[in-house]
Amino acid sequence: MTALAAHASSLRWWHSRAVYRFMSHHLALLGSAMIILLILACVIGPYVLPYDSLQIDLRARFAPPLTGHHYFGTDPLGRDLAARLLMAGQVSLLVGFSAMLLSTLIGTLVGVIAGYRGGWVGAVLMRTVDGFLSYPSIFLVLALAATLRPSPVMITIIIAVTGWMEAARIVEAEVRSLREREFVLAGRMLGLSGRHIMFREILPNAMGPIIVASTLTVARAILLEAYISFLGYGIQPPLPSWGNMLNGAQQYLASAPWLAIIPGAAITIAVTSFNFIGDGLRDALDIRDDHI
Amino acid sequence: MFRFLLSRVSQSVVLLVIVSIIGFTILSLMPGGPLAQFGLDPGMTQKDIDRLAEQLGLNRPLWIQYLEWAWRLVQGDWGRSFRDGTPVLAVIGRHLVATLLLMGASTAIAIAIGTWIGIRGATHRYSLFDYLATIGAMVALSIPTFWFGLVGIYVFSLQLGWVPAGNMYTIGDGSVLDYLHHLILPSAVLSLVHVAVWSRYMRTATLDALSQDFVKTARAKGVSERRILMKHVVGNALLPMVTLAGMQLPSILTGALVTETVFTWPGMGRLFLDSLGYSDYPVVMGLLIFSAILVVLGNLTADIVIAVVDPRIRLG
Known about the structure:
The complex is a heterodimer of chains A (292) and B (316).
Chain A: H1 2-10, H2 17-23, H3 26-48, H4 81-117, H5 119-134, H6 137-147, H7 152-161, H8 165-178, H9 182-189, H10 194-202, H11 207-230, H12 242-245, H13 258-284
Helix pairs in contact in A: 2-13, 3-4, 3-13, 4-5, 4-7, 4-8, 4-11, 5-8, 8-11, 9-10, 11-13
Chain B: H1 2-29, H2 36-39, H3 46-55, H4 62-75, H5 88-123, H6 128-142, H7 145-159, H8 176-210, H9 213-220, H10 225-247, H11 249-262, H12 268-277, H13 281-309, H14 311-314
Helix pairs in contact in B: 1-13, 5-6, 5-8, 5-11, 5-13, 6-8, 7-8, 7-11, 8-10, 8-11, 9-10, 10-13, 11-12, 12-13
């Protein structure tokens, strides 16, 4: 064990096999590059573009893409679509990342406890996971979003509390298989507390699957936010999000198709990129995945 | 077989109990709880509402309320719609067929195309086709269904004029052909994600079946590759897909909700959104519970079907 640790520490982290394999996964690299570009564009873009995302210009309504400096055209109020797209990107990506952090936290907690304790505690927790999974996620999210006040924070929480089950399942299976290993027995023999063994000894060994699952969770969270905002129950205007930009787009589909096409393309690119990264990480960390 | 059935059915019953507890929790979270409708009525004072709450037993412990609520569910009394007073189950029943039609059509498309892509990907492993199918599946999983629907409407209804942009039938024309014409685009849109999932699983399952000993035996006996594929591999690979069909139910329902909205399809998803808009909580709750029950029963059916077909499962 110590020999291994010494060997590992003599090499920098970027020399590891996992990093090498990730770097040779072309789609994952493409995905990472896209995400970095998207984040940079969304953070810097609004300062560079000549228009503000809320600036209304009724003379320039429905300008098609590439009209003057309106690179993506304008919306029914004459607001610059490019500026709105980048502002919306900040919101959508932030909601996606935060929801992922929260749901991974919940899922990991439930999974570790269910997997380590087992018995009736584990059974109750895992049946609860099954119960949540029986609901079509969007029905659950919409019912909650329509009931509770839909601030961005609340939307994030709702997406997280309806999306932690996958992480819980993965962590539970991982912890259950690690529970009987020698290092856990040794920990018990040393008199370490259950909490210490669960979170300090077992959890670090289950990090790989958790990282992969959380990458895919970002993708799912961005999609779900888009769905409920498109349906009018998510992020509320004037704050733009990729989903609510599409909210009114259908009625202008014949006259101003770019209103629908551009934000949807942004969602697709972001979500595809996260799925590519997740796939690359799965290969790199060598995780056998029995469920998609 | 009997023991398998017994254990599988009792698992589902336990799951239904948990599902109903989750549902009841959400119901209690809704503003005003079950009395929300009266809060909007200016003729009702807070005192009236309190009295009503007492009459209906809403001031009793939550678990007693839950048991009563669950008992009413079991008896088929799901409450009445706030909008027109029709029983919730009747309202759902009116919209069920449209959703089942959409789900059935898109599942059929997904199975047909997904199976073909999966088998071809497995037999031509690492070919250009296989790579494109892999990437295509990942992209397809990332496309928001409603956006794909909008693009579909733009291209195939507005630009090409091949199919109608929405609704389930033309008023005044109730022919089967008219229904089919309206069904094409929404079911194709809804099937996209499932083609992706189905083709990935089918590829894995086919590869798995191809590596089995009975394939080697068949090859050794000189059976043609085509015959091996058709007779020995596909059947075995399709078997686990029954389970997959059950597992896919929640996501098909989610997709159906969004697709129905875009195509003004008069199904359960459309009903769900309309009811949300009217704060018609009994119908919202009813649909929520109903969809979860549908999912649990769907999975149960899938498990039973596969146990009937495949003795390895029921014998453990």
